[in-house]
């Protein structure tokens, strides 16, 4: 009942100034971002793979190890920080993740060899894995249910982050006259974004839903009061009888040991419908993640024998096409398509784009195909990021999202190596593209068993759920 109360209070307060702050704090890399950071680093990996391969004369498999180290960190980070977020609070975990990413990205900037870079990327992935699962949870628990489509819109920062990174890389490639390789400069600039994120995130409050779930009624009231004052200019107070009821129901939680709490969370996650959710989401994220990560990491290679600056220019166009995909997805998730059929449509069309990518005979067709593909993939991911936290109950919401995102990275550990090996073969390109098409199609089909989470319109003051 605690989540229901928190949702009702947020709905009563409505959307306003504080809500916009949370939106940008969870969304925008320059002003404090979580998801954009993740896509920012995904694109940085592409430049690191290309640049380090030249600097250290790495083979395709060795450069793939760098991408796999990052993916391994993402796997562990989602699960570790998912548990921390459910046990010790969303904000405690949310502030720690960006600090881990900041320190490790500084290390990567000055790395001396493959091993040092792999270790730094592992730690960056650890922080980014936590970022990715926490951003949706934090925003979801600050957002009025009727405005939850903004969670889908937040995926626009995937496009913003990746496009901005591509522009920076393009400029550095053209203007760099120093002795430092371009990828080191790109990573160094990323450290500045991480620092800005960390500073702004220090001022974020704990979510009211988490406070209520832990029996911290006074804290929840204070947070809701802060939200109400900034959104409406009016103070907010919980009903005294409700406060006593919630406080009494949680008075015995102080005796729970942290270790026991962890096992309780894990047991709840792998029982009943929660287990079914984990399996479905893992299939979806894995089948979408393998081709998307491979295409992202190896796009300069897939584009063929063109200059590095030209490749970066093309990547800017491709990533920019993800921005309209987010707006289309944000509109579709609140129509009759809902969350799950938006996912199905998006990845089915992405799979179709792979066919045209396969038969592409010239660079123009390849550019158009991959740009449209990126639009559909981002459209699908934006809907996936919305339905994932909405589907899990609050007591396991963060660990559930973390586990799903973590497991989705398992295949990303091997996909750079597999894709790198395939592209080194004579007929590896067509085989890789066929695999991408099949996996995108599998993601589209896997969404069918999910329950639709799209809220229905308000009726007589109550928010109905589909």
UniProtKB/TrEMBL annotation:
One of its GO terms (cellular component) is membrane. The keyword Transmembrane applies. GO terms for molecular function: transmembrane transporter activity. It is a multi-pass membrane protein. Residues 22-455 form the Major facilitator superfamily (MFS) profile domain. It is found in: Membrane. It comes from the Eukaryota. Keywords: Membrane, Transmembrane, Transmembrane helix, Transport. The chain crosses the membrane at residues 65-84, 96-115, 121-143, 155-173, 185-204, 277-299, 311-333, 340-359, 365-387, 399-423, 429-450. PANTHER family: MAJOR FACILITATOR-TYPE TRANSPORTER HXNZ-RELATED (PTHR23511:SF5), SYNAPTIC VESICLE GLYCOPROTEIN 2 (PTHR23511). This is Major facilitator superfamily (MFS) profile domain-containing protein. It comes from Stentor coeruleus. The lineage of its organism: Eukaryota, Sar, Alveolata, Ciliophora, Postciliodesmatophora.
